[in-house]
Design a protein that fits this description.
heterodimer; A: D-Maltodextrin-Binding Protein, domain 2; D-Maltodextrin-Binding Protein, domain 2; 2 domains; 6-stranded mixed β-sheet; 5-stranded mixed β-sheet; 16 helices; 45% helix; globular; B: 302 residues; MetI-like fold; 1% strand; ABC transmembrane type-1 domain-containing protein (chain B); cell membrane (chain B); membrane (chain B); transport (chain B)
Chain lengths: 419, 302
């Protein structure tokens, strides 16, 4: 009897749960635009970054006294889960920022506003074209626009290169392998390592595009079965297996500090080296990644910013997103970022050199990378495929599969997830 | 059927007690039964967390049976569970036998081995991450290079992933098992040993025929809780082995059931599928615990 009651209770609860979970969603009622409004902006990153975006929000408040925008921090570790929880409960932030493809993912499920409704597709003219494309959904919807840019650079120890008789960093793939050989011959134990993208698709991305390949064709068919893709992976695998690039990732400034001569790392590394590793001052420099047979194409990352579909202030939120592209907003953000010694590159290529928080010399290196850079594929199923693609690349690097098989397997996964 | 009269008298007698239980029952229902019922329902649906769930019957479970990655996860988890529970239990028993005295030296040693159990697991995992730091500045690699070896890519070598996870789990958990075993050893009457000694039983035979059988309830408890804990391993994988784009280390070599569940549910919007994984995990643990309790013939003692 007691068991039956318990069983009935459970079934009843399950049904209640079902009823709760299946309640539909109606479009969010919009608040009066002229009434005072407080918007919340969940910014993925550190507290310091929240503070620099708050400067732009304060500036917006000065121009629109009715509107207050509160920026709150989501740490990278749990941002995605928190945003998912907010989307499920349809409450929380009006504006969100996060990984480049997040807004597409949330948008595809109805949790983001298509910013074209508010005319934000006009920002395309100001953005880096490849990054814009990457933030745009396959169906053309714009659920998020780039908030900042990041890329990779080749950091090097000038003293170790001099020791090997190299007066300039390698500019091509061939020069890179030659330089590694000469460094080894000169007694440098750790000639080359990779930080951002090590053993990961982002690392392969650079070689793939530098060899003239792509992950997908323009109509989103997997294109890893090309000679270019094979050439890129063969070269990358060689860097690990013949030239001793470590499979374990060490943060780029740590790697430089512990005697690695050439390190591929994210642009943000440049900001911290002199402060965190004072010993390295004057002993390091940076340049763009060595170019492949098809050119110097480098990965462009960054964050996207968008407006949630459950916001009551969608139009105001969209206006704030547009404001983030204005000269004055960028100036306010950069001023604060410089004060706090934070890496920040605005999403407008024309602003990189004079309005990033990096020194002009450093910014010029990044600007060169942005000029020919490409961003993550925006094709359907890419986000689901990325971890598996990385796994197949790893099996080639670790010698568990040959290059051709690894690429064929990766392409199979991409085709399956493309639906 | 319940008779109204005794019910009323029972209410009069226990009414206050039931009222006092209500806050707990409320919390229990809201934070345990309710989510459990929800997840059971969701395991039969596709639910992306945002759009309404759509009922799909047993599709999630059928997909799981064909999911090569899930099979890999099950293999990984089995190896990890067997190794960590076996080693953990043996070492707990060994430590308990070594340090079950009441002298200060034994007490100090017991405290030392128990310390990992009272430390925050997140802090422990971060510490392990630093010990295994891949560059030659990591503690493990410093020792290796002092001994004349070359630096090892601890966290990027697939073959080392599960042994490292087992090491972390055994190191962190054996002190807890030891304390339980020490309590178990203390409850064995000394007379049995004296009688055996008079009969001329060797130390091994005394251990084999007195200590081990009388420790069976403790062993059952240690193994069952160890199994449950090992199947649910998450922090170790999530903190120590997560890469930028994957959660389970190089080539998924450390991907276990719960990290996979988290990955599917919270980074791939497949909450229905993740719920199905959770219920499969529940079934596995349930069946194994039952088998274990039967094998230990310790139903009564527990």
């Amino acid at each position: 009897m007691r068991r039956t009651t318990a069983a009935c209770g459970t079934v009843l609860l399950a049904l209640l749960a079902a009823a709760c979970a299946t309640s539909g969603q109606a479009p969010t009622r919009q608040a009066d635009r002229d009434a005072p409004a407080t918007l919340s902006f969940w910014s993925t990153g550190g507290d310091d970054e929240t503070a620099i975006f708050q400067k732009a929000a304060d500036l917006y408040h000065r121009e629109h006294p009715n509107v207050t925008i509160k920026v709150q921090t989501l740490s990278w570790d749990d941002a995605y889960a928190k945003l998912l929880a907010a989307a499920t409960s349809r409450s929380g932030p009006d504006v969100i920022s996060g990984g480049m493809t997040w807004t597409i993912q949330f948008g595809a499920r109805g949790a983001m506003v298509d910013l074209r409704q508010h005319g934000l597709d006009a920002l395309k003219a100001q953005a880096q074209p490849a990054q814009w494309e990457s933030a745009t959904s396959p169906d053309g919807s714009v659920y998020g626009v780039p908030l900042d840019m990041s890329t990779l650079a080749l950091y090097y120890r000038t003293d170790l290169l001099a020791k090997a008789g190299l007066d300039a960093p390698p500019k091509t793939w061939d020069e890179l392998t030659a330089a590694i050989g000469r460094l080894k011959a000169a007694g440098v134990d750790k000639p080359y390592s990779q930080d951002w993208g090590n053993l990961d698709w982002i690392g392969y991305f650079n070689y793939l595009y530098q060899a003239g390949g792509t992950f997908y064709t323009p109509d989103c068919k997997p294109s890893l079965d090309t000679p270019q893709a094979e050439r890129a992976l063969t070269y990358w695998v060689k860097l690990y297996r013949e030239h001793g690039a470590p499979t374990a990732s060490v943060e780029a400034s740590d790697a430089l500090d512990t005697g690695t001569a050439l390190v591929v790392g994210g642009n943000w590394i440049a900001k911290g080296i002199d402060v965190n590793k004072p010993k390295l001052k004057g002993k390091w420099a940076m340049t763009t990644l060595p170019a492949g047979p098809a050119g110097p194409t480098t990965f462009i990352g960054g964050r996207a910013i968008g407006v949630t579909s459950f916001s009551e202030h969608a139009a105001t939120g969209a206006d704030f997103v547009r404001f983030m592209y204005s000269d004055q907003a960028i100036a306010a953000i950069v001023e604060e970022a410089r004060k706090r010694n934070l890496p920040y590159i605005p999403p407008r290529p024309d602003k990189v050199v004079d309005s990033s928080s990096f020194t002009p010399d450093q910014a010029r290196v990044f600007e060169r990378a942005f000029r020919t850079g490409k961003a993550a594929p925006g094709c359907p199923g890419w986000d689901e495929s990325a971890p598996d693609v990385s796994k197949h690349l790893q099996s080639a690097i670790l010698g568990k599969a040959d290059v051709k098989t690894a690429l064929a397997e990766a392409a199979k996964v991409m085709a399956r997830n493309a639906g | 059927m319940a008779n109204p009269a005794p019910l009323r008298s029972r209410l009069r007698r226990y009414g206050t007690s039931y009222t006092m239980l209500l806050p707990f029952l409320g919390l229990f229902a809201a934070f345990l039964i309710w989510p459990l019922a929800n997840s059971l329902y969701l395991s039969f649906t596709t639910f992306d967390g945002i759009n309404p769930a759509a009922f799909t019957g047993l599709d999630n479970f059928r997909d799981l049976a064909q999911d090569a990655r899930f099979m890999h996860v099950l293999r990984n988890t089995s190896v990890y569970v067997v190794a960590s529970v076996l080693l953990g239990t043996l070492l707990s028993l060994g430590l308990a036998l070594a340090f079950n005295g009441s002298g200060w030296a034994h007490r100090v040693m017991r405290t030392v081995f128990f310390l990992p159990s009272v430390t925050s697991s997140i802090a422990l995992m971060l510490m392990w991450k630093w010990v295994l730091f891949p560059s030659d500045v990591g503690l493990a690699n410093t020792i290796v290079s002092r001994l004349g070896g070359t630096a090892v890519a601890w966290l990027a070598t697939p073959g080392l992933t599960i042994p490292i996870l087992v090491l972390m789990s055994v190191w962190g958990g054996m002190g807890y098992g030891m304390v339980l075993y020490v309590a178990g050893l203390g409850s064995i009457p000394q007379e049995y040993y004296e009688a055996a000694e008079i009969d001329g039983a060797s130390a091994w035979r005394r251990f084999r025929h007195i200590t081990l059988p009388l420790l069976r309830p403790v062993t059952t408890y240690v193994v069952v809780t160890g199994l449950i804990g090992a199947f649910q391993v998450f922090e170790a994988v999530y903190i120590v082995f997560r890469g930028t784009n994957n959660i389970g280390g190089v080539l998924d070599s450390g991907l276990m059931i719960v990290p996979y569940l988290y990955d599917q549910g919270f980074t791939h919007f497949k909450l229905g599928y993740a719920s199905a994984i959770a219920w499969v995990l529940f079934l596995i643990i349930f069946v194994l615990s039952l088998v274990n309790l039967r094998l230990g013939r310790a139903m009564k003692e527990l």
